[in-house]
Amino acid sequence: MITRRMLLKSTPALLLPPLCGALPGCGSGDGGCTPAAPVAGTQTPRGLHVSWTGDPRTTRTVSWFTDGNSDPGSVVEYGPVEDGMSACEIGSAPLPARVEGTSAATYGVEARTHRATMSGLDPAKAIRYRVGSAAGGWSDVRVLPPAPVEKFRFAHFGDHAMSDASRAVLRGMQKAAPDFVLIAGDLSYANGEQAVWDQYFDMLDPLASRIPLMTCPGNHEAKDGGGEGYRSRVAQPGKGTYYSFDCGKVHFCFSTGGSLLDGLDGAGELLAELAWLDADLADAARRRAAGEIDFIIFVQHYTIWTSCEGRDPANYTLVLLEEGMLLRHGVDILAVGHDHIYERSYPMGRAKRQDDGYVQVTQGGGGQSLYELIADRDEWSAVALLRHGFTVYSVDGDTITVKTYAVENEALEGLPEGTELPVIDEFTVTARKAEVRARFAAARPKAMADASFDHDAMIRHTIERNRRHDLAEAGLR
Predict the structure, then answer these.
(1) Pseudo-torsion of CA 441, 443, 447, 448, nearest 10°?
(2) pTM of the full predicted structure?
(3) How many whole angstroms separate alpha carbon 129 and alpha carbon 440?
(4) Domains of the chain by range and CATH?
(5) What is the Cα 191 distance to its own chain's centre?
(6) For labelling alongside 281, which of 136, 220, 323, 443 has CA 20 to 30 A away?
(7) Which H helix or E strand runs over 320?
(8) 10-residue mean pLDDT series, the chain (477 residues)
């Protein structure tokens, strides 16, 4: 049987060859199989990455790029990996399904972004696929794992970029082989240079074409046309910058955290997002009380609280509003980035330990240079370290076991096959008891209806926070 770990760990580092020849049972010594190779054309697909825009059990959306302004076509051909298929057959047998997608101009460069959604998938079977067109050329065949079900694993990091540490994180991810990956903002650090996005997705391709990738924008995405560089390159559910989905019995809710707000003209969109978040979390709490889900995980770029030196919450009014939602609806885990540290809280709220609060996991060690920690941390902080790495969450029934791995660039290169990366933190989160679920389910959305809260001030503070980030990173303050 072809397993997920075989698919992702078939070759060292990130230089995965075409599938045929990369797995056991395929090659010239096994009957003369010829590896399936990309089909060259005038506009060969590149930068493949997979996400969900619909049901995670039965759909996958593939995005990719072609160079030039003309549209060669956007087609994905796909089919299941059937029992007994050899690796050669997986890579070269005809693909039975075909769907045409869409394409649009890619922001800031002479290229097209293509998207196509595979649907009607068998949740129990891996998926083999290729993208492209007869006119432009085809990618090689890639393989995606079966849909995550009740028991699954996902990984989380933020602040990625393209440093040696960034690549070490991707190599570590390949070894860990999660079912999907969350990037909590600040992906490419293009900072206005749109060609950097091309290099970034080329770097991601060997992993992101084989594992679904779900993202949210950070403050660095705002530097690319107010988020247009990000929006034009990724495919996410709903509005694409804030959205939610269920995987197994876990509800995931993603927010911009106000990262893309650059003036009063965008105030309405942020207010609409906050109202939607409040309603989405309230509905998730209701469904959790009914037994439909067990956990609620909130993802955004910005921390609520931090032990990073000089990085106290820069917008207390927005933090107050958001944290009120997390506490009112009983969010279990807050997964963030922004501060280039690793930090994990005890269950907390209002900067204090709180038994029925949320656990904040700050995983800003995705690849950018690390920051500094304050000397005396507050009581809510359980662990704080200056390490590059990623965090893996293993969902199994009513328990999520969480392990954070460090990547040491030199050591990672020479780790023997099967050696696990160093674990720098480990903890568990258990599902809330029935009476606690019922209490949170009784709360109703109120963030935008609270007349005592100064929403205008929150908007002004968010615009000012984003402006200060820009000035600080430009070295002007």
Answers:
(1) 100
(2) 0.92
(3) 43
(4) 40-144 (2.60.40.10), 152-441 (3.60.21.10)
(5) 20
(6) 220
(7) helix 316-329
(8) 45 36 40 64 93 97 97 97 92 96 98 98 97 96 94 98 96 94 98 97 97 98 96 94 97 97 95 97 98 98 95 84 97 98 98 97 97 95 97 98 87 66 96 98 92 94 88 57
